[in-house]
Amino acid sequence: MRRVYFDHSATTPVHPAVAEEMYRYVNKTFGNPSSVHFFGREARKAVEEAREKVARAIGARPEEVIFTSGGTESDLMAIKGVAYANRSKGNHIITSAIEHHAVLENCHALEKEGFTVTVLPVDADGMVSPDSVAAAINDKTILITIMHANNEVGTVQPIQEIGRLAREKGILFHTDAVQSFGKIPVNVDELMVDFISISGHKIYAPKGIGALYIRKGVRWLPISLGGGQERKRRPGTENVPGIAALGKAAEIALDNMADEAARLTLLRDRIIKEVMENYSNIRLNGHPTRRLPNHINFSFEFIEGEALLLSLDLQGVAASSGSACTSGSLEPSHVLLAMGLPPEIAHGSLRITLGKDNTEEDVSYFLEVLPAIIERLRAMSPLYHKVSDDCETCAKTWCR
Amino acid sequence: MYTEKVMDHFTNPRNVGEITEPSGVGEVGNPTCGDIMKIFLKVEDNIIKDIKFKTFGCGAAIATSSMVTEMAKGKTLDEALQISNKAVAEMLDGLPPQKMHCSNLAADALKKAIEDYQSKQTV
To answer: pLDDT digit of tens for each residue in chain B (123 aa)?
Structure first.
């Protein structure tokens, strides 16, 4: 059976050149970067070269980049590190309703420690308004944390505008760029950010490696304590193979970004166009234009997302959904609900995220298998019947 | 995640559809929680002669709906009322723990359909 991987926002395959780089540090160059001898020096060199590559990719200085275990740890370090370091200045944090749980949960954890958190709403396209950020700022605000691109719907936030606001007010600004890094330009000075979270496995590096950008001179405290690694900002013996892999992956992403974004945008827009034209009761979730080049999120009304994913999987197509059944809770996606989608429509969302190995043929295959799946599940759905029968008089949301 | 039996009933669900002029109809769930099951009955001489379902929901919701129709078909109403959600799950060789409550409501829909039929008889 043909296998089509359309779930690159979940994770990506490791790029062969990245795997090769990584293998070198798993296999031959095994030293501890803190060691004085040859083996250690070789490993140190790998770590610092990777740091330069990551720094170059975001327009930062190498000493402003530290390596972490991934996006979640980077979010934790940025948020709690700023909160604890600036307690004397204030206790207010601003974030948005569509953040990744790694951001939201850490903000909520701080509420139990005496911090107050403003969770900003988003519009129907999943966009945070800079005006709402401005309105939320008070004299106790110490941190704004708003993601660059949303993982579920792909909407790209007005980070630069928010960054400008934050800078004018002297408030530290963190952005989770896990989904945008490597796909669209992420530059620390253009975006006017002080902290950026980065994850390796979203950009063809392995799982378990990430980075945090910390602008030089900002008030921040490390969360974990121990040895002197990463200038005491993230102690623990460095994950040298992972770090080397992230450096390589960042380098490749930067080199190919413009071409790859253009190529994926064509594939993305072909799927969007054909699906929107060929089905009724369907919506594209997320911003129509300000979205990641590889990202699509549809809601197929009258269908539940997990049933859709299972059906696609049986045809070899791997995607994901914001339905409750796939989120591990009884609630559908907090992102889709925050965008104002009724729950029954949020349950029927389908996320397609494209990547480097996807081709026109993959898109054609997906578009070929989709109609029978949608037809079958809708034919089974009691909601679909309701619409066709008495849509004129029915006031239910799914009839609109 | 799902057993072979669940996947079989999800891929080839039995008795999908509606019955025109049903003897009884039962519906459970709501679109907010992501599951709606609707069961249609044709009852003759106290026996379920025909049964159909329509379901909006995940793989487990569709499979349990399909299974309950298979279990109930040809049974007397009293026998059919004995079918529990747990028994449906067992016939499918089990469901993932998180699905036991949210998506395992098919027997409740069947019960409602039978009650609907019975309420019409006493009028």
So the answer is: 899 999 999 999 999 999 999 999 999 998 777 889 999 999 999 999 999 999 999 999 999 999 999 999 999 999 999 999 999 999 999 999 888 877 788 999 999 999 999 999 866
3-state helix, strand, coil in chain B (%, to 5): 45, 25, 30
Q: Which chain A residues have a beta carbon less than 8 Å from that of B57?
A: 304, 307
State which residues form the domain around A76.
16-253
For chain A, the residues whose C-beta falls within 8 A of a C-beta of chain B are 302-307, 310, 314, 323-325, 328, 330, 332, 342-344, 347, 379-383, 385, 398
Residue range A45-98, pLDDT digits in tens = 999 999 999 999 999 999 999 999 999 999 999 999 999 999 999 999 999 999
A152 and A300 part of one domain: no
Question: What ipTM goes with this model?
Answer: 0.93
> What's the gap in Å between the CA of A250 and the closest CA on chain B?
35
B22 to chain A: which residues are within 8 Å by CB? none
- Distances from the Cα of A300 to the Cαs of A146, A243, A276, B33, in angstroms? 28, 40, 10, 16
Q: What is the DSSP code (8-state) at residue A28?
A: T
CB A122 within 8 A of CB A339: yes
Q: Is A54 a member of any domain?
A: yes
List of residues 6+ apart from B14 with CB closer than 8 A: B66, B67, B69, B70
| Closest CA in chain A for residue B17 | A380
Q: Chain B residue closest to A310 (CA)?
A: B59
For residue B10, how many C-alpha atoms fall within 13 Å in the half-sphere facing its CB?
A: 26
Q: Cβ contact (<8 Å) for A302 and B56? A: yes
**Is A121 within a domain?**
yes
Q: What is the tally of structural domains in chain B?
A: 1
